[in-house]
Amino acid sequence: MIRIAEFFQPDQESLIRLVKQCGVTDVVGAMDWSEGLEVPKERLPWSLDKLAAQKKRYEKTGFYLAALENRPPMEKVKLGIEGRDQEIEQVIELIRNMGKLEIPVWCYEWMPIFNWIRTTINLPSRGGALVTQFRLEDVTDPYENEYG
Considering the domain boundaries, does residue 36 fall inside one? Predict the structure, then answer.
């Protein structure tokens, strides 16, 4: 059976009303980052209690939390540098907690430094739909960061 999902935060009321009208039943959700990362381990966004509370917020909107779109920090893992083992442990904790809460899908990404980067965000495509695009030749001012 095909299930239709949309990405949104549990407090986006106008979007929630719209997607319900379109027949959407599932949500691709996000962890609650409102407290940041400088908190005790049991209050990190991927901890069991925080993830369970976020799942309940989505369920209160009438949607099934079918997937999580974001992740714990993974830059050191993706770059293969010191500190990666601790980040891997955080990802393992996320996956275990998702299993306990029966959240079946994790949408990870493997792009270092930026979650995603595009040089065009409104390229017309099939049927007139707008899509994103990345073209290295369009990058005129490469971003420098703490990793190089």
Answer: yes
Q: In the predicted model, is pLDDT for residue 44 greater than 80?
A: yes
pLDDT in tens, 99-145: 999 999 999 888 777 767 889 999 999 999 999 999 989 888 776 77
26 phi and psi angles, rounded to 5 deg: -120, 160
Nearest to 65 by CA among 94, 34, 100, 25: 25
**Residue found under tokens 């106008």:** 14
In the prediction, which pLDDT does 62 show?
Answer: 94
Range of the domain at 106: 5-115
| Higher-scoring residue by pLDDT: 115, 96 | 96
Domains identified in the chain, total number? 1
Which pTM was predicted? 0.82
Sequence-separated (6 or more) residues with CB below 8 Å from residue 88: 77
Q: Give 79-148 as a DSSP string.
A: HT-TTHHHHHHHHHHHHHHHHHTT--EE-----SSSS---SEEEEE-GGG-EEEE--GGG--SPPP-TT-
Q: Read off the CATH number of the domain in which 90 is found.
A: 3.20.20.150
Q: Catalogue the long-range contacts made by 129-138 (C-beta closer than 8 Å, 24 or more residues apart).
A: none
